[in-house]
Design goal:
- The protein has 110 residues and is an all-alpha fold.
- About 5% of the residues have low confidence.
Length: 110
């Protein structure tokens, strides 16, 4: 638990944006740190907190979907990817939408 707090503190850096929300990039970086440490559940919680605070942060959906897919958690991966496709479409981000659609298609065929 102490290690988790140290990672969270280091990644978040205590930075806040003008609205008082935790900085989206810091939350994203924390999730990626957990992922690189193979702490899938911690990473998923961090992605979930980011999603709660900034559902339009498109990169998280691809990373969460890819992580869950690699861990064999295909139903969860599909849900994250579909939500990401919707978020990317809403933002007009065709590149991200296409990447997530391709991954969704690959894991749906599995």
């Amino acid at each position: 638990r102490e290690e988790q707090e140290q990672i969270a503190s280091r990644s978040a850096g205590g930075e806040r944006d003008a609205s008082g929300k935790a900085d989206s990039f810091a939350r994203y970086a924390l999730a990626l740190e957990y992922r690189s440490a193979d702490r899938i559940d911690d990473a998923l919680r961090a992605f979930g907190k980011l999603r709660e605070s900034d559902a339009g942060y498109v990169p998280m959906y691809l990373q969460a979907g890819a992580m869950l897919s690699a861990a064999g958690r295909l139903d969860e991966a599909r849900a994250w990817l579909q939500a990401g496709i919707d978020a990317a479409r809403a933002k007009g981000d065709d590149h991200a939408r296409s990447e997530m659609a391709d991954l969704l298609e690959r894991i749906s065929a599995a």
